[in-house]
Amino acid sequence: MKKLVILTGAGMSAESGISTFRDSGGLWDRYPVEQVATPEGYAANPKLVIDFYNERRKQLLTVKPNRGHELIAELENFFDVTVVTQNVDNLHERAGSHHVIHLHGELTKVTSSWQPNNPKYIKELKPEEYEVKMGDTATDGSQLRPFIVWFGEAVPMIETAIDYAEQADIFVIIGTSLNVYPAAGLLNYVPAHVPVYLIDPKEVAITSGRHVNVIRKGASEGMCELKKMLLNETA
Ligand code: APR
User: What's the topology of domain 19-62+110-148?
Assistant: First the structure.
């Protein structure tokens, strides 16, 4: 089976009702990013940050995967699919995707404030545990923090994602403004002969200058069109 690698961003989940970050009215308009998504913000006011992610987790219980997520999962019948997502929600998994690499962490997990990337301390929360409180601790005694990669922090999963980008037979980008590195640089690892598709209702600047097949649509409609294109080509 051909290897299909799909890079997704906040636009993937927009039709499920989760705000994007940089569109007008997006999350970073409403919450100062330096307060809720940096290690400095967390050090200055951990409760504010913990509450912010409690809210995001609570929202997770009220949203569902959209048709776009479902179509990506269905493509597993035809391709060896790897999803590389910048999203911290679990909508790809809930739609049935089996291989999802989360570059920026996962809302459903918490970890140690002292060693956030030590697998020993990463814990999956059950829905009834979604509200983390000040004083809840990891097994090393530190405050439990969200398992989220904040601005200025290392992105440990990028190496794995690069390996998949280098091996891709087809590369797809959905719903990301490609503003945040290293995720935005993944396209540079995709071999030159590999077809690249981009689904987004707005124009997204591709700095490398390589040819990209643009589908100027939302994630669900765009995925429907892409599925037809890919299946015709592989038939
Ligand atoms: N379908 C597809 N794409 C959409 C849709 C939709 N229905 N609605 C909006 N979009 C597009 C926007 O046009 C934009 O290009 O989704 C993109 C969202 O861009 P951003 O808000 O910048 O989100 P993203 O690129 O995922 O941000 C990257 O930055 O804030 C940090 O860590 C956070 O993972 C995030 C990273």
Answer: SIR2/SIRT2 'Small Domain' (3.30.1600)
C-alpha closest to that of 157 among 112, 204, 111, 117: 117
Angle at 92 between CA 199 and CA 192, to 5 degrees: 45
**Domain residue spans in the chain?**
1-18+67-104+156-235, 19-62+110-148
- pLDDT more than 70, % of the chain: 99
Do residues 137 and 111 lie in contact, with contact meaning Cβ atoms separated by under 8 Å? Answer: no
Of 202, 166, 204, 215, the closest CA to residue 187 belongs to: 166
56 annotated to a ligand binding site: yes
CA of 21 to the centre of ligand 1 (A): 6
pLDDT attached to residue 16: 98
Catalytic position from the list 69, 104, 193, 211: 104
pTM of the full predicted structure? 0.97
Q: Is 104 a catalytic residue?
A: yes
